[in-house]
Amino acid sequence: MLRPGLIGMFATVQLLFCPYLPEGVPGAIFAGIASRMPFAPIHPSAMLLIMATGQTQQLITLFKQLPILPEKEIIEIITAQNSVGTPALFLAMMNGHTDNVKIFMQEIQSLVDNHIIHEDNLVKLLQTKSANETPGLYISMLYGFDEIIDIFLNALTTPITQELLSKKNGDGYFSNENT
To answer: 93: closest CA among 127, 130, 37, 137?
Structure first.
């Protein structure tokens, strides 16, 4: 509990550092900002930290914020890579963060289903590889993370993913011309 002397000191400090504005101005200033940006800006490194350390609640919170951002920024965040080029999804798969992988896959599918991001971005995410080109699915198999394998394979069986996998695109992803 604050002592009466501290309350007076706080009021004095507030007056010294807060500019004198006409009545009603602060509300007008902040109402516009709050309506446009209800959350703090997100840096792609937040996704890396959350996925690498398995912070499930923070991941849920981050995904709640994504729909208000432009598609380009969303893609930068969900495809975030560390300094050597390893993506966030790969880090979660490698570290056995089952809940994070599950939430990530569900939320990405939701972003595609709601036309917030284009479905072609899903292909890039499904091909998650480390900097040395090791697939995330292989790492999960190597370390015996069966639940992550199931989650990843279930994501591959969604209708939109099946449609993407059946397409042959110009980059040669998923094409069977050489088989």
So the answer is: 137
Give yes or no for a contact between 18 and 10, defined as CB atoms under 8 angstroms apart.
no
Half-sphere exposure of 30 (CA within 13 A, CB side): 5
Q: Supply 126's token pair.
A: 């499904």
Residue with tokens 């006409």: 22
- For residue range 75-101, list pLDDT tens digits in order: 999 999 999 999 999 999 999 999 999
CATH of the domain at 51: 1.25.40.20
Separation in Å, CA 115 to CA 71, 82, 149: 10, 27, 26
CB–CB of 73/81 below 8 Å? Answer: no
The Cα 89–Cα 124 span in angstroms is: 11
Q: How many domains does one find in the chain?
A: 1
Give the Cα separation of 44 and 74 in Å (integer).
9
The structure tokens listed for 104 are 């990530």
Nearest partner of 77 among 109, 53, 41, 103, judged by Cα? 41
Q: Within a domain: residue 129?
A: yes
Q: Three-state SS for 135?
A: strand
pLDDT in tens, 52-74: 999 999 999 999 999 989 999 99
Residue with tokens 């602060």: 26
